[in-house]
Each structure stands twice: as structure tokens, then as C-alpha cells.
Amino acid sequence: MVSSVFGQRAPSKARLISRLVLGLDGRLREAEHIYEYSSDRECLFRIERTQAARPFVLSDGTVVTPGDPLVELHFWNEHIYARAAGAEAFSWGKRMRRAFVNSLIELSDFLDGRGEYDRVAAVTGDLGVAIAGRSEQLLRVCQVYGFERVDDGRPVSMTEHLHRAGQNVLALLLTLAVNPLSARLDVLTRTHMRVAMSRAELTSRYGGQPFRGR
After folding, report:
1. Rounded to an integer, what distance in angstroms lies between the CA atom of residue 130 and that of residue 142?
2. With contact defined as beta carbons under 8 Å apart, do 120 and 54 qualify?
3. pLDDT tens sequence across 119-140
4. Which of 112, 150, 187, 208 can pair with 172 through a Cys bridge, CB separation 3.0 to 4.6 Å?
């Protein structure tokens, strides 16, 4: 476990560092055109309009070729609940599952209501896993919600490798800023795996569905 930089001896310094890190994250999101599609306080994702870098085929027959328009999911870090333990773990898991489903319901409605997303072939995400052996476990969770693995996320160029390293550093800083007790140094060496869900599958599973109760 990483010793928190937000120690009890310097709370004002902790708040300053937190503001700086979140400010940096906001500037990077603005530069990369990552934005909120929901104003709900429990929405777990932001999105980015992007294009496929590699070809892949999904189980429902959707074929994605390089250059096809995609929607990339990014975790909304400030909305990720601190993981609970013991007796509270069950309620934590229930709340996360509900928020995950509601976030996808809102995403489906958002995309269907805007013509500029009509050609989006799939929704994708990059799963960064810091703990060895957790990749398959996390993949099984994603499959419950309709996602499937499309590649192992290995960088194919030095540029992509450096970008990935920068993402890992930022992920650690954001964890320190938002939930310092859960920060771990192995975030810096986390592995990556890409998952995707076709637009048709997103609509079939979540389109027109009511919000799950809070």
C-alpha cells in the first residue's frame, strides 16, 4: 500500500495537491475531448469519440475495421465509490452494480438521441489491472454486462507504450487525490486489456430501460 501523501499532519497541503491533480486531469480530458454524457451523480463513465486503431470482430457478428467510429468509455474517477470491506462489502457491490447498469442505460439513450453517433460501431474500454491475476476476474464481470475482450491491450509502438506509462502515473495520482487509502504502487505497472460491446448489443440490453432504483 502506498503511504498517502495526504498525511494528517498537512491537510491543507493534501487539499492543494488534490486540487492540482484533479485540475491536471481536467485539462487532459479537455485536450482529448473526454466529456460527460450524464449529470447523474452516480454515473460511472465519461466518453470520448474515437476511431478503431485495430480490427476486431464481436460475437454478434459486428465487424470493426481501422478508422471506424467508436465511443470510448473512461471511468469518472470522482464517482467511483471507495471499496468497502467486511459487512459493508455486499451493499458496496450492490450499489456499484446498480450504478454500472444505470450508466449504460443513460449511455444508450444518449447515443440514440444524437445523429452524430449513428455510425458508431461499438462502445469500447481499456481495463487497467494493477493486481496480477485479476484480469480474467475483471473480464468475467464485464461479460455479465455485455462486454467482451477484443485484444490484450499490449502497446504496438513506443509512442503507445509511453502513453500507457503516462496513463498509469496519472491513475496513481488520481487515486491519491480521490481515494488515497486504496492507492497502490503496482498501478504504475498495471496491465491493460481492451473490451468492447457492439452498438446493437448496447441498444438491445439497455435501450429504453428504466433507471434501477437507488
Report:
1. 16
2. no
3. 999 999 887 654 555 667 778 8
4. 187
Residue 5 pLDDT: 36
Mean pLDDT of all residues in 9-27? 58
Answer for the pair 172, 187: CB distance below 8 angstroms, yes or no: yes
**Beta partners for residue 34, in sequence order:** 48
How is residue 186 written as a grid cell? Answer: 503496482
In whole angstroms, give the CA distance from residue 10 to residue 27: 26
φ, ψ for residue 85, nearest 5 deg: -130, 170
Q: Has this prediction a pTM greater than 0.85?
A: no
CB neighbour list of residue 80: distance below 8 Å, 6 or more residues apart: 44, 178, 179
Domain boundaries, the chain: 11-205
28, 170 Cβ separation under 8 angstroms = yes
Beta bridge partners of 72: 48, 124
Name which of 81-90, 168-177, 192-201 the model is least confident about.
Answer: 168-177
Q: How many CB atoms lie within 10 A of CB 213?
A: 6
Expressed in angstroms, the distance from the first to the final Cα of the chain is: 32
Length of the chain measured in residues: 214
Give the distance, in angstroms, between the CA of residue 173 and the centroid of all CA atoms in the same chain: 16
- Residue 175 exposed, middle or buried by CB count within 10 Å (0-12, 13-18, 19+): buried
Question: Which amino acid is located at 71 in the chain?
Answer: V
- Find where cell 475482450 sits: 149
| Residue that has been written with the C-alpha cell 473480464 in this structure | 139
